Amino acid sequence: MEEVKNFLTDIIDADIAAGLNEQIHTRFPPEPNGYLHIGSAKAIYINWSIAQKYNGKFNLRFDDTNPVREDDEYVQSIQEDIKWLTGEMPNGGIFYGSDYFETCYDCAVALIKAGKAYVCDLTQDEIREYRGTLTEPGKNSPYRDRSIEENLQLFQDMRDGKFPDGSKTLRAKIDMASPNMNMRDPAIYRIVRAHHHRQGDKWCIYPLYDFAHPIQDALEGITHSMCSIEFENHRPLYEWVVDNCPLPHHPKQREFARLNVTNTVMSKRYLRQLVFEHHVEGWDDPRMPTLCGLRRRGYTPSSILEFVRRAGIAKANSLVDIRLLEHCIREELNETAIRRMAVTEPIKMVITNYPEDKTEVFTLPNNPKDETAGSRDVPFTRELYIEKSDFAMVPPPKFQRLKPDGEVRLMGAYIVKCNEVITDENGEVVELHCTADLETGNGMPVDGRKVKGTIHWVSASHAIDADCYLYDNLFTLENTGDVPEGKDYLDFLNPDSLKKLTGCKLEPSIAAVPTGTRMQFVRMGYFIKDTEDGRYNRIVTLKDSFAKTLQGK
């Protein structure tokens, strides 16, 4: 892996030089309430690659402190995605925030005993009202000065289930006049009766993330808690918790910019809505920015990590063009993907001067860029299929494919000339009658003439049937974080984000290709074999509009 260096590694280098850390220890703390997406890949990459750089440890810790939407399905999917993306399970171990509930409770009790936390009866609306504004300080809760003894008893009663959900919270006693709104006596425990995926019904009170997370980091020995930039204003509270709770270690929180990508959404709330309202096929729909969706689409772990690396690690938020992601996978597959011929919108071509009962075999390379990839045999017969777009009755300017009385090269085979066009009652072309120059086999003309056009083809009697799924951006709006007033992000769902082509004709060697194999369908794009029963997903087209942008930099 390429040397990792960014402003976060500069911070770590300085800490090591100052003797603050001997072994670097990072973590990735997803909430198991949905599937990971490409924004998650950035957080994984940062924490995993930095741990590798310093021969340190990298933990996976599930932030399962909110039982309402959490599920073991998401726990399993997250582990699968991390192993797929990095090629390994976290070397520091797999942990669950819920395993620390007892310690979190003990820390809360310690805060109460120190006069730094109190049980509050204000409703959520009242808490917001008391909180103040960015320009005006908040005011103290009328319950802020309860005695330590009363708070200890009330908190124990909260744990024992003696109060209704939402009727009380435990709040940190900090400063209602703080310029940082997060420090104005934030809630650190709430009452929620919900079945927990690991703890069952043992608890009816749950710590809030801002309280539980620094405790979990400290207990695991995390040295650098690296999180997205929206937590920057939460850092003083993070430090307050580790300073005021009886913890064995003092981790350091630092923040980086989130990964925002054009023409898609990253909010887990929006992703859940897309799935549960059936705007997409599921979490693994190849149009989704989820890692499982990208995997099914045909993206590789290396292409995603390369995209994250090229997008950069910085503190300033930015919007990254989705074409950079496409460029990364296209660049990789151009070197590695096997080549195959596939006709996605077929019309029949009959070679009238070729024997009806003859089958000839032409040998074509698996990848012209890689001699070690070998070759495969492709059968040639009298009846073939070619791409509908490779023929034009009235060709546009500079059209170099087949036309009436025109000639083209059949890739790796003969030069053919179109002599007759068969149409149906609607005037649609259904069949072409051609003659082949049988002296031009194996791609080599013998008479010195040049034919500009080369098209792909498939033997009609040997072709396998398939469905090809062509994908485009999920949203027509480039920046889905900036939806125009009066509009909803769903208003910008792309109606053409999926095009299904049935009745496609593929060369027979594709039948033996394992599911999950990535191929270039020559001249048509890069595809992955999605299912054994004939579904092929297009990963990206061959045209790379972003390459010119990169060359211009």
From TrEMBL:
Its top-level enzyme class, in one word, is ligase
Mention any Pfam family matching this sequence.
Answer: tRNA-synt_1c_C
So what EC number does this one have?
6.1.1.18
Q: Which Gene3D superfamilies match?
A: HUPs, Ribosomal Protein L25, Chain P
GO biological process per UniProt: glutaminyl-tRNA aminoacylation
A GO molecular-function term, please? glutamine-tRNA ligase activity
Q: Which residues form the Glutamyl/glutaminyl-tRNA synthetase class Ib catalytic domain?
A: 23-334
Pinpoint the Glutamyl/glutaminyl-tRNA synthetase class Ib anti-codon binding domain residues.
Answer: 337-437
Q: Which InterPro entries match?
A: Gln-tRNA-synth, Gln/Glu-tRNA_Ligase, Glu/Gln-tRNA-synth, Glu/Gln-tRNA-synth_Ib_cat-dom, Glu/Gln-tRNA-synth_Ib_codon-bd, Rbsml_bL25/Gln-tRNA_synth_N, Ribosomal_bL25/Gln-tRNA_synth, Rossmann-like_a/b/a_fold
Domain of life, source organism: Bacteria
**Record domain tRNA synthetases class I (E and Q) anti-codon binding: where:** 454-530
Keywords of the record, alphabetical order, are:
Aminoacyl-tRNA synthetase, ATP-binding, Cytoplasm, Ligase, Nucleotide-binding, Protein biosynthesis
Any one GO CC term of this protein is: cytosol
The cross-references to NCBIfam families, in alphabetical order and at most eight, read: glnS (TIGR00440), PRK14703.1 (NF011291)
Q: Which family does it belong to?
A: Belongs to the class-I aminoacyl-tRNA synthetase family.
State what protein this is by name: Glutamine--tRNA ligase
